[in-house]
Write a structure and sequence with these properties.
By secondary structure, the chain is of the alpha/beta class. It has twelve helices and eleven strands. It starts with a strand and ends with a helix. It binds nicotinamide-adenine-dinucleotide (NAD).
Length: 366
């Protein structure tokens, strides 16, 4: 039996709910275990070798509950496993500082706690809570635009000696200064901004690469995404979107033989349609020229459950962070970040990143 990977969670929203309910789904349906998982085992670690030991949020209805209760609280909307069928857990959700975590549009849904503690007091409490829980990895699923909160949690990881998996587009792993801080302390960091299992980014990147590999010239492209959960509602606030746009656009640009001018590429979350819930729709178009300068274009419509999409990837990110910890490898984990994240410190093509990750797991490279 391998030892459990002890994981702490920051931002107990829909993504974590999908991750935890998904793991429980596989536990209750073992015959399904081969469907929907990239790696059943990674260096011996399976998906049931993960234990969620502590959580942090700002929602007054989530703080104080156990993680397995909090994942069902409003405005979360994942209900793959009925709440009464979810096993009890002792792991508690504690208070995180709010800082820039709660956007204009989602405030009345998140209902942030009115705290009587300073951020410094919370930081001291959090370090103790991490220590007592035994968490060795913290995973962040904060709302887009939470740059200050992400930096707060990156610092908590550095102070507590905990690995960090940053699933959102606030740049830590891909930021030179933060990357160095993790390297100096020998603490692994994987990031930034998680890709989907079959998400908009990977589909767009793959098709753009295909067009270039087949010798055609891409002239313009767009990717529009709409959804109906708090993630999309939050992204209506344009000021919170700066790094999300960079992350998503660069993820596609990095795959092109020739970068497109800024006005020839649009990649972004574009609107909130309430009744879509966790369903995300992506519309993508590529226009280019092929043999004899003849024009062509393609359009793709992708419809996907955004939370299944993200859980199918973070399940590997957690295990890769643990492998780095086991092997004493600190700083940005380049292969895992390139394979699983939209804005890694080093971009690779997806096949290159997959190979690099396999070599990392087999111990052939760092
Ligand atoms: N496929 C995907 O779903 C996908 C892909 C890439 C990135 N992401 C990113 O993952 C993040 C999480 O997505 P989600 O759907 O779970 O969002 P969500 O809105 O459901 O959850 C966010 C959670 O963070 C909490 N929060 C807000 N401020 C906080 C703070 N200061 N400290 C601690 N917690 C705080 C909220 O209360 C909420 O529980 C988003 O940034 C999203 O863009 C998701």
């Amino acid at each position: 039996m391998v030892e459990k990977i002890k994981v702490g969670l920051v931002g107990i929203g829909n993504c974590f709910s999908g991750l935890i309910q998904g793991i429980e789904y596989y536990r209750q349906n073992p015959s399904q275990q081969v469907i929907g998982i990239i790696h059943e085992k990674l260096a011996g670690y399976g998906i049931h070798d993960i234990e969620f030991v502590v959580g942090f949020d700002v929602g007054e209805n989530k703080i104080g509950k156990t993680i397995n209760e909090a994942i069902y609280e409003y405005p979360n909307m994942v209900t793959w496993i009925p709440k009464e069928n979810m096993p009890k857990s002792n792991a508690k959700v504690y208070e995180s500082p709010i800082l820039d975590g709660v956007g204009l549009w989602v405030e009345n849904r998140i209902k942030p706690i009115k705290s009587n503690k300073t951020d410094e007091q919370l930081a001291e409490e959090i370090k103790k809570q991490i220590k007592e829980s035994g968490a060795e990895i913290l995973v962040s699923y904060l709302p887009v635009g939470s740059d200050k909160v992400t930096q707060f949690w990156a610092q908590m990881c550095l102070d507590a000696g905990t690995a960090f998996v940053n699933c959102i587009p606030s740049f830590i792993c891909s930021d030179e200064t933060w990357g160095k801080k993790f390297a100096e302390k020998g603490i692994p960091v994987i990031g930034d901004d998680i890709k989907g299992q079959v998400g908009a980014t990977i589909v767009h990147r793959t098709l753009a690469r295909l067009c270039n590999d087949r010798g055609t010239k891409i002239e313009k492209t767009y990717q529009i995404n709409v959804g109906g959960n708090t993630d999309f509602l939050n992204m209506k606030e344009q000021d919170r979107l700066v790094s999300k746009k960079i992350s998503k656009t660069e993820s596609v640009q990095s795959q092109l033989d020739e970068r497109l001018d800024d006005d020839q590429i649009y990649v972004g979350p574009s609107d909130f349609i309430p009744f879509l819930g966790n369903t995300k729709l992506m519309f993508m178009r590529i226009e280019g020229r092929q043999w004899a300068n003849i024009p062509y274009n393609m359009e793709v419509r992708l419809e996907v459950d955004d939370k299944a999409n993200s859980a199918g990837i973070v399940i590997d990110a957690i295990r890769l962070a643990k492998i780095a910890l086991d092997r004493g490898i600190g700083g940005p984990i380049y292969p895992a970040s390139a394979y699983l994240m939209k804005h890694p410190p080093k971009q690779m093509t997806d096949p290159q990143a997959k190979t690099a990750c396999e070599e990392f797991v087999s111990g052939k490279s760092n």
